[in-house]
Design goal:
Elements: H1 22-30, H2 47-56, E1 68-73, E2 86-92
Antiparallel strand pairs: 1-2
Helix pairs in contact: 1-2
Length: 96
């Protein structure tokens, strides 16, 4: 995580994210510590694309390998996250 400048103590490996569906990803987000203001999730499709589309009420065809989607949530606490509470700030991918 040194490339991103993130201390290892701030990184969690959540095995349930591996090939998780959108509902599982949403539940993981709801369980984040409220002291954390920013979270980065790494996952796989189709769950990741479905999660972004449902969270932000968007229609991205596919979040490709190494694609990055930044979503801003309209919530005070992570536990308040629900479908439609997000807005895509940017979406980028290597071949763009």
């Amino acid at each position: 995580m040194s490339v991103l400048g993130i201390p290892k103590v701030n990184v969690q490996l959540i095995k349930e994210l591996y090939h998780a569906g959108d509902e599982i990803i949403l539940n993981i987000v709801r369980g984040l510590n409220d002291n954390c203001r920013v979270a980065m999730l790494f996952g796989h499709n189709p769950g990741l694309t479905d999660f972004v589309n449902n969270l932000c009420e968007e229609e991205i065809d596919n979040v490709p390998t190494a694609g990055v989607v930044c979503c801003k949530l309209r919530v005070e606490k992570w536990s308040e996250a629900k479908w439609g509470c997000g807005k895509i700030e940017f979406f980028d991918w290597p071949k763009k």
